[in-house]
Design goal:
2 copies of one chain form a homodimer. With 243 residues, chain A is an alpha/beta fold. Chain A contains 8 helices and 11 strands.
Amino acid sequence: MRRLQDPAARRRSGNTLLEGPNLIDAALNAGVVLESICVAVGGEDGPALGSVPPERVVRVTPSVLRAVAATESPRGPVAVIEIPPSEALVASDTVVLWDVADPGNSGTLIRTAAAFGWNVAVSGGVDPWNPKVLRAGAGGHFVTRLSQLGEDPLTELRDAGLSPVALVASGGSPLDGTLSAPVADDRRPTPMALLVGNEAHGLPVGIAAACDAAWSLPMRTGVESLNASVAGGIAMWALRHRR
Amino acid sequence: MRRLQDPAARRRSGNTLLEGPNLIDAALNAGVVLESICVAVGGEDGPALGSVPPERVVRVTPSVLRAVAATESPRGPVAVIEIPPSEALVASDTVVLWDVADPGNSGTLIRTAAAFGWNVAVSGGVDPWNPKVLRAGAGGHFVTRLSQLGEDPLTELRDAGLSPVALVASGGSPLDGTLSAPVADDRRPTPMALLVGNEAHGLPVGIAAACDAAWSLPMRTGVESLNASVAGGIAMWALRHRR
């Protein structure tokens, strides 16, 4: 279980870790099957455990639980699940995590996408099945469609019927309450792929230029940028009325 | 300097730490005076250092810099600044961090407030001058007005002419593009104090009930809540047109 903190071990085994009772509950509610679950002897089981077959429950000392978990003071169980296969892209609004590196930001974007009904695609950056990303995702991984993109992400997105739009810190059209979005022949808006870039570097210039549009959130002078997960969250909220 | 990671030492000395070249640059651009700055011998000085009197620059080994900083692999300098006094509340839209506990969320809310022109007030939770909060704030601390509230925060807010509004995960009026805000006699909207609660527990029920209104962000069924800094960020964005 401890090895699953490591990306190579996750790829080899096809498994990852869920830490904490809330996240495990969210997974069970979404119908995820636990391979096994580690519970501290004498600790609270929480509501989650009731539905887990007893042969999958491993009782360990608190120090073993601490060794298994990535969080410094894990409260409650740690579970192993199989990583679901990457889902095919579909023609429905999708937020694209483009080289998003911070596990907190990646998980928060997935959580927000789930809340507002966006699909998620990932191109580079932190592994979305990293246990820290899962924690910040707060169950969003199990509610939204999650696709991992390959070598030529923009082509993949276009082939799925998505219009790529870049979210940039400055220089884009102001993203506003009255949004003009790309519109198809039948006057229904074309579903979009909203690209959110890396925390330090944003989107690569060439990628932003190859998108159908670039949008920015107008900010007060003297402020350079927003946190990536806040900017992406505001954009997903602001664009929710298109659908 | 290392002691300044500790809240009691910050209170005693009235100082705090800025870690990293970007944050130090943002502070210098906003006219903040550095008491001293610790730079790794042989490391890059960055643009910030040019404007600092040489007697305030301390050159140390990388291992000393690591000992001083809270971040595990500090890149670039660490500076000491005086903590500015708490500012008086004014009758202008203010986001209230109510028992927000996570340094990342607190800093991100301050960063977003600065970007959209909100003032910030803090009631309980993590110290806004904690070095980790400053890092996540990305300079927002030096661009926005920051007030620390006392024993009776709601009265303080009302006395300053602010209408307290609770942001709650569910059960509030839907916060929407077409917002009906409290309106004063002269038809200009009353400035509001937007209360954002603790990550795990939200706002205390009694506090939310004592506010003039409670608003929620409509979410898809099956999703319980948003990250506190994303929810607060969306609300600050959605409400920016009132002003």
